Structures are given as structure tokens and as C-alpha cells.
Amino acid sequence: MGFKLSTLPDRQNIWPWLLLAPLAIYLALFFLVPLVEVGIMSVTEPPPGLANYERVLTGSLYRKVFLNTFGTALLVTVCCLLVGYPLAYLMSTVSKRAAMAILLLITMSFWTSFLVRTYAWMVLLGNNGPVIWLMQTLGIQDPPPLLFTRFSSTLAMVHILAPYMIMNIYTVMQKIDPSLIRSAESMGAYGRSLFRHVYLPLTAPGIANGSVLVFVICLGFYVTPVLLGSPREQMAAGLIGNQIEQFLAFGLGSAMAIVLLVVTLIILGLYHRRFGLDKLYG
Amino acid sequence: MSSYLQLSGVNKTFGNFTALGHIDLEIEKGEFVTFLGPSGSGKTTTLMVIAGFEDATRGEITVDGQSLSHLAPQERNIGIVFQNYALFPHKTAAENVYFPLQMRKVGKKAGLKKAEEMLELVGLSGFAHRLPKELSGGQQQRVALARALVFEPDLLLLDEPLGALDKNLREQMQIEIKRIQKRLGVTTIFVTHDQTEAMSMSDRIVVFSDGAIEQADAPLEIYHRPATRFVADFIGESNLLPATITDAGTRRATSPVLGDVTFGAEGCPQVSDGQTVDLLIRPEHLKLSRDPKEGRQNAQMQIETIVNYGDNAVVIGHASDQQIRVRVPGADVVILKEGDTCHFSWTEDAVFVLTE
Ligand SMILES: Nc1ncnc2c1ncn2[C@@H]1O[C@H](COP(=O)(O)OP(=O)(O)OP(=O)(O)O)[C@@H](O)[C@H]1O
Ligand SMILES: [Mg+2]
Which fold has domain B237-354? Predict the structure, then answer.
């Protein structure tokens, strides 16, 4: 039947690569080359050597920013989990049609540019926005500022990243064999122990996938924390931007970027050893 | 005294579809009962109603005189083995078997010990610490069985537990399940599609069709004295021949295919003159010969196909447009040729009458 690739021993490996070539070239040109450049800059600007790394790894400002970055990423991940798990569970229990409707709502917000969503939060939480107005109408005298705080940036990041969590957990929940639940019930498992001993362990891979994805994306988040967050609680990406845009400290910014990259790779590596990275794609 | 498990007038509808019409069934303590029937006949639905996963629309189920109606599945103390085993993939064999004990607040040490004893009983002593994915299909099956039995359930329900196994393993597990069931004396309902499995394992077979019970009897009873045409046709091979009773007193009937026939198998139902019935003759009760046989009732047929199984063969022929199946010893088959005309003969005690 037609043309069989596998019967052509010499060429069999060429075709897939040829098809991948445009993408590979694109990635090399616009991703790998700049990355290498950043790496080089981090050890050559201004003086050649590891001085930039020394500052990044020991300076108290940088340590504070990195700690803040990890703290925020962790907080966002936990919040996404708390929001996402029940929602994914709801989707897996309602009818197919209702699940599709929820999925559509989630993906609709997912497809909206996150810049747009970030500005939307600025409008909602701003001093003249509806939330503050509501608090005032309810009689709260001096409503606390919402915008440009840790609260606003966390809220917006949770909103932006929760779909990753939901999709990952929902995929796993959907695949759970209902006879596992029935069999657990027949053996005497009620709601809470059923959840603890059966349902939660069965959904753990989804939790792990979603969490790693959200955490890693959050580590490098730039626009949202910069626009919505408190300037005093900067995250790493924002500080890198500052270094480069305001102080033209290309070397220092590059060193920070590399450290962030290495940490991300370490997390992914650990995850890969435990679960296999291919699981991340569902 | 009423039976151990009793289903009275159980009815189950899904929307306006009736899955179970009106099920009456009594099962004694320690009995091994098989549900046999075509796909969609309501076997699984009946199990699910007993287990409490589906509520009966009408009717009542009692175990040992106690109504199950208001008990959740968790409270019914029923062990279930699902077709796909439903083992927890994240728990080892021993932890799986310990699970029902854990739910009953049995301590870890005592519970795991009991689980391992149970695994030993099903022949899996060395496998306690393996995860389900590290076990073969037959071994997973045994773990599922151990798990369903470890908490000493009042009832054991198995829904086509051997469906996924190959033939040899199937036969091995049939013997094994039967052995364990006998040893523990647990009242068991076993669902299967496979009639030889039902024949060889059961104390009683319940034949389902279209959400109703056609017959519930011992295997040989079902085979030799089927209650309905459906059962006669579904269980084993059969020749079903339409006939009219000519004289009920002397047990005579006339059939377009067989001519005048005397029927006389044990346990034939009551009939009256002029009643239209079906005569049942099993293929192994017919004999083939060139000439009519002295002392037997004879008719003629033309041979169409011979299916040889080695030690025996099935000869399929027709007599006045009616298909006739005859099972003959393998050695006899060499003298037969497709296209030949020959006589087939029977004795009156091989002829059973079906009125329904
Ligand atoms: N939840 C349900 N909703 C609607 N119809 C159902 C439901 N469960 C079962 N049925 C219907 O009830 C009938 C009996 O189903 P059941 O599963 O009991 O058959 P079965 O005898 O176990 O068949 P099989 O041998 O194929 O397993 C079928 O026609 C089935 O489609
Ligand atoms: Mg079934």
C-alpha cells in the first residue's frame, strides 16, 4: 500500500528530521543562540570572570529576591491546587456536556493574552475599581490598597496559571476506572477514607504534573508581577529586567537569568527522575 | 424457613427501559450459583442491585432475613470481583488485600498478616510485595479474589472474572475458585457467558434472557429438562422440531420432519391433545445409519456438512428444510460423505417436549 518509509533503510531517519528542521532552525536561531550569548555575557561583562555569579549568589538583595521568587511560586502553586483540584473534580463528575462547558470557559480565559488579563485585574483592583468601591459601600472606612501588592500579583498569577493545573488534574481524574471506586466502596470505604486511600493517590500524578508546570512557569513570570506586584517584593524576572533596562548591567542580569535557568532545570530533572518528563505533556 | 439470599419481585428500569422485569430468586447459604445469559440480559444489573450500586426500582432483597434496601454498599458486607479486577495500582498485593480490613479498623500488623494468609490460600505466597502491574493477569485475578474474601463477606459476587484470561488459565482458575469457595463455604454468584464454565462450576445455573429469569436449576436439570425453547437453544446444542400432540395419553405426537413420534423423556411437562409443541432431541442422542434401525424411531436426512473434532464429529444435515445436528463418535465419521442420504434414529426417552 503506497510508499513505505520503513522499507528504505538509509532514508528512514531523514524524513522526520527534515520535517522538524524548520522548527529546529527557528529554535536554534531565536532561542539557543541568544541563550548562549546570555551565558557568555554573564562571565564577560564587565570584567571577565565569575564576579557576577558571586554577587548574585551572595548579595543580600539577590538572595531576598530569589527567596521571594520561590516563595511566590510556591504560594501560587498551592493556590492553583486549592482552586484547581475541586474544579477538576467537579468537571469529572458532571455530565459530558457540562464538563465541556466548564472546559470551554477555562480555555477561553486561557486563550486570552495574559497581558490583557493582567490589565483587567488592574482595572478591577485599582483605587477607582469596583472592588474598592464595593468595600467602601459596605462601610469599610479605609479599604487597604489592593493593587501593587503581593495579593494582587498572586491573585492574577493564580488566575493565569490555574488552567494548567486544572487540565493536568482533570486528565488524570477522567481516566480513573469507576470500578476502582465501586470496589473500594464495596470493601467498606466511605467518603473521607475513600478519598485519602484511593482517590488522592490515584490523582497524585496529575497533582505532580500540574504543580511542577505551574511552579516552573511562575519562577520566570515577568509581566504580571511587574505590573501588579509590590515594587518592594520583586521577583527574579522583574529584577533581571531592571538590571538590564535601568542599570544596563547586562552581565549581572545575565548571571541571574542563568541561575534561574539552572534552578528550573534542576527541578525538571528531579521531576523527570521520579515521574518521567514525558508525562508533562499529558 | 426462607433462603439465605432472597430476591423478591426485583425490578430495575433506566428511564423507560426495563433492564430487569421481575426477578424472583432464592439462593441457599454456601451455594455456588451461576448467572448465564446473552449480553444485555441483565446479569450485571442484578449483581449491582444486590451490591447496592443500583437501587431496585421495585422489589426487595434480603440476606439471612435482613432487608438490604436501606444499606449503603459499604454496609452490605459483600465481596465483589470485577471483570478487570479493579486492583488499586498504587498498592501492593498485600496492601490491596489488607484494604477491606483497614476500612474495618483492623490494625496494620494483624491486617497485613491476615492478608498474607489469604494470599497464601489463593496460591500467591511469594507475591505479597508486588504491585499489580508486576503481576500476570491470572495472578491479579487471585489477588482480587483474596481481597474480596479476606473480610469474610456474606456474599461473593464475581462478574465475568475469567473473561480476560486465555483458555488454559481459565480452566485452572475455574478449579481454583471452586476449591476456595468450597473451603470457605461462602455463598457465591458467578456471572459468565461461557456455558461450559457454568456447567462445570455451579450448584445451580440461573439462565437470564431479556431481564427475566428463564430457569434456575441444577446444571444437568437445565441441560436435560429445559423449561423453555430459549434455554434449550442457549444451553448446549439442540434439535428443536415443531410438532402437534396427537394423543397425550400414549405420548404420541406428529412432526413434519420426524413423522409420528413417541416422546418419553423423564420430566416432560403436561400436554393435551392438539397442542403445538417443540420436540427437543440433543445431537448426541441421535444415531446415523444407512438403513432404518430396528427397535428405534427413524427418519431420513441428507448430509450437508461434517465438522470433525477428532474424538467426535458433528454431522449437519437437513430433513424437509429443517436442520438436523447429529454428534457421532470420531471413528464413525469415515464412512459418511457430504451429500449422502442416510437415516437418523432415536429412542423415545431421548425426546423431550417443550411447551413454552
Ligand atoms: N446505567 C445504565 N443506564 C441505562 N441502561 C443500562 C444501564 N446499565 C445497564 N443498562 C442496560 O440494561 C441492560 C442489561 O445490562 P447488563 O449490564 O445487566 O447486561 P449483562 O447481562 O451483564 O450483559 P453482558 O453479558 O454484556 O455483561 C442492557 O440493555 C444495558 O444496556
Ligand atoms: Mg455484564
Answer: OB fold (Dihydrolipoamide Acetyltransferase, E2P) (2.40.50)
